[in-house]
């Protein structure tokens, strides 16, 4: 393929922009990762060093010294996995139902759903509802209240509307029921949107801590983000609380190392998971862009 001079210039500019954007994303990640192994004094006085003599795992050792971090990690996996499963199932079923042309009252249902995107009962009524349902200090208090996402339903509905009706009509001619059409034809074609919704739901729940702070009083049920938040607050130096200057400096040193180590621990599962979802993510983000 012969490229004109303007095409080559445009491709060169695009490549340069991609390199710049990639560096803007990768450099902070690299800085945080290396800083989690680097002594804070070295980081402040010499900057980011690659000398192994200045490396230390005190931050990770302090972070994992207590079993609460592992318990919080397990709780976060449980909450994020359960939340993702419920959210994806509800979104797929609701989106497929609302994509059917013969559904009576479809517009009214969509208006009802969309209104809930902008108006809700608020924090106190939601807390009272969760309490009255007996979900306080349970896994369900984290999974169920926010499991239905109208935005996810709209994305799924848009994706299903793009599937040709001829496929469903041909299956009906062959004697397939609506359930078999959904199970054997629609679901296999819906992998991109399923994985995109799963990725969004998992990341959102993995990074969440406010609901757990409100609904979970039992520390044994706290997710990883809330455990890390507690660790950082407990290791934060408050002026006037510590009289010994040496103790204050030591606590500040440990606190800085824990800060970077906790960021790495909290981000690592998402960084590992994303490459496996990337090909589906690229397809799913184009939902509705082409007809």
Fold and architecture overview:
By secondary structure, the protein is an all-alpha fold. It has 2 domains: 5-54; 60-284, MetI-like (MetI-like fold). It is built from 14 helices and no strands. Helix 4 packs antiparallel against helix 11 (191-206), helix 4 (68-98) runs antiparallel to helix 13 (224-234) and helix 13 (224-234) runs antiparallel to helix 14. The longest helix is centred in the C-terminal third of the chain and has 40 residues, at 245-284. The chain is flat, with a radius of gyration of 25 Å. The model is unreliable at 236-246 (pLDDT under 50). It is a multi-pass membrane protein. It is found in: Cell membrane. Pfam families: BPD_transp_1 (PF00528).
How many strands?
A: 0
Structural class call reads mainly alpha
Question: Per CATH, what is the topology of the largest domain?
Answer: MetI-like fold
Give the uncertain stretches in residue-range form: 236-246
Q: What would CATH call the class of the largest domain?
A: Mainly Alpha
Q: Strand percentage, roughly?
A: under 5%
Distance between the termini: 29 Å
* H/E element order: HHHHHHHHHHHHHH
Membrane topology: Multi-pass membrane protein
Protein name: Sugar ABC transporter permease
Family: Belongs to the binding-protein-dependent transport system permease family.
Domain ABC transmembrane type-1: 73-281
